[in-house]
Design a protein that fits this description.
The complex is a heterodimer of chains A (141) and B (141). Chain A has 141 residues and is α/β, with parallel strands linked by helices. Chain A has helices at 12-25, 44-47, 53-77, 91-102, 124-132; strands at residues 3-7, 32-39, 81-88, 106-110, 137-140. Classes of the chains: A alpha/beta (141), B alpha/beta (141). Chains A and B meet through helix 1, helix 5 and strand 5 of A and helix 1, helix 6 and strand 5 of B.
């Protein structure tokens, strides 16, 4: 069974990556998409001393759900079978670690996420992911 | 139908990219594979001053076919139909222009070709190609 990792951040580039991934799967039965969003950890002290762990967990979860919703809709409209994964940490490192843990066959991702400077060809997250993993990485503009 | 371009240069990296293309072609069934070898322009002065030669020099054509031999063998052994083209010029620019001219929808490249610094995560040719084209690029390590 082919497993492809799709890290998304809600950006137009991530949405284009989602659409291209569906083409790459091409309706193969048994292809599995792992839809992933990684939220950078919120530092509690940066916000307020009154913010609890539960509150930051909720913020991470809500931001993660928002980020994957567009890709999820596109995937649901296709025949692709998909699971959702919301993680917190350094985006590139977390994507790479998750890819290794799950033993995915490839990664499909947008080159320019929300957080990176628009004029950069390769977002810093994509650049770092390529560096960290050994599986093929498909970059979508 | 997915039209894929795989630049080949006889390196282990380019062979791995070819294997990825073979795998994708077998899974998707409806694909077209274009293999491209880029030979250096005859001379720098010629490149800068001379009119663009209408045809690839015969010796370059031969060198290109030699460089593509391992890629062609892999594709033929796998029973994947392909066409091989030899072009002359700067590698990344030629790959980018060829991809546009032939309306390729995906470029599959080894990250490190021959003659490039081995420690780089992404070779300079791959980086430049990503910069030049709008279509997705799969990087194979």
């Amino acid at each position: 069974m082919q497993q492809l990792l799709l890290p998304v951040d809600g950006s137009p580039s991530a949405l284009r990556a989602t659409k291209f991934l569906i083409r790459l799967i091409g309706g193969q039965p048994g292809a599995q998409v792992l839809l992933l969003n990684v939220q950078p950890a919120i530092m509690v002290k940066e916000i307020s001393v009154n913010v609890t762990i539960e509150m930051t967990n909720q913020m991470h979860e809500q931001a993660g759900r928002d980020a994957i919703s567009g890709a999820r809709e596109v995937l649901d409209a296709s025949a692709a079978s998909c699971t959702e994964h919301l993680l917190v940490g350094d985006p590139a490192e977390t994507i790479a670690r998750f890819a290794k843990e799950e033993g995915v066959d490839g990664i499909v991702m947008g080159t320019r996420g929300l957080g990176s400077i628009k004029s950069l060809v390769l977002g810093s997250v994509a650049t770092k992911v390529i560096h960290l993993v050994d599986v093929p990485v498909t970059l979508v503009k | 139908m997915l039209r894929m371009l795989v630049p080949v240069d006889g390196s282990a990296n380019s062979d791995r990219a070819v294997k990825y293309v073979i795998d994708l072609a077998k899974r998707l069934k409806s694909t077209e594979v274009l293999a491209l070898n880029v030979q250096p322009a005859v001379s720098y002065v010629e490149l800068m001053l001379g009119p663009k030669p209408s045809a690839v020099a015969p010796e370059s054509e031969r060198a290109g076919r030699d460089a593509a031999r391992s890629a062609c063998a892999l594709l033929e052994d796998a029973g994947v139909a392909y066409t091989l083209q030899v072009e002359q010029g700067q590698p990344a620019e030629t790959i980018g222009a060829f991809a546009k001219l032939r309306n390729c929808e995906l470029i599959v490249m080894g990250t490190r070709g021959m003659g490039l610094i081995k420690t780089l995560a992404v070779g300079s040719v791959a980086t430049k190609v990503i910069h030049l084209v709008d279509v997705p690029v799969t990087l194979v390590k």
